[in-house]
Write a structure and sequence with these properties.
This protein is α+β, with helices and mostly antiparallel strands. It has one domain: Immunoglobulin-like, CATH 2.60.40. It contains 2 helices and 10 strands. The strands form 2 sheets. It has a 5-stranded mixed beta sheet, with no helix packed on it. The protein has a 5-stranded mixed beta sheet with strand order 2-10-8-4-6, with no helix packed on it. The radius of gyration is 26 Å and the shape is elongated.
């Protein structure tokens, strides 16, 4: 009898584990190109795949040498209690940080969590990775999967007027040298 009860309990746990779908946390836009010394805006969304979740915490990982964290602004439509929001202090966030939200009433469907703002400070191709929370953060109870973003930081191109100005200075130099030779 104990053996049968054990198998029934294991079967029920497996059924529950298979039926639980993780919340998807994603960043949008997933790719973008930004000039050097410009702001990068990343929107973070959740999708519960029509299952209920009470929320959770996840980490935002980025290259400290390429970006300065400026701010996080939670979406005004995020139907939760602000007391259950987790965000970094701007003055102390020089690296990965935790971001999260929660509500005892739960969440269902899709929605915007927040907008993250960074300042670019190095050229190159960089990733913004969302992942399990750093120590001290409570993960989504049913688990979560993450969709990350890439940002290409390019040097600021010179405007066409700058090229015109530089070519006119070059022409003046050539004309002056010709006058000196004659």
């Amino acid at each position: 009898m104990k053996q049968v009860t054990k198998y029934i309990i294991i079967s029920l746990l497996l059924i529950v584990a298979v039926n639980v779908k993780a919340t998807i946390v994603s960043v949008s836009p997933s790719t973008q190109t930004i000039p050097l010394n410009s702001q990068v805006l990343l929107d973070v969304f959740y999708n519960t795949e029509n299952n209920n979740t009470v929320g959770g915490v996840f980490s935002v990982n980025f290259d400290n040498n390429a970006f300065d964290f400026i701010s996080v602004e939670f979406d005004s439509n995020l139907a939760d209690d602000a007391a259950f929001r987790v965000s970094p202090a701007v003055t102390t966030s020089k690296g990965p940080f935790n971001l999260g939200f929660a509500s005892f009433n739960g969440f269902n469907g899709t929605g915007k969590i927040a907008t993250l703002t960074f300042l670019t400070k190095q050229e190159g191709l960089f990733n913004f990775n969302l992942d399990a929370p750093l120590p001290g953060g409570d993960a989504f109870p049913e688990g979560a999967s993450y969709i990350n973003a890439q940002v290409q930081v390019n040097p600021v191109p010179l405007p066409a007027a700058s090229w015109l100005l530089l070519s006119s200075f070059g022409s003046l130099v050539v004309v002056r040298r010709r006058k000196q030779i004659s």
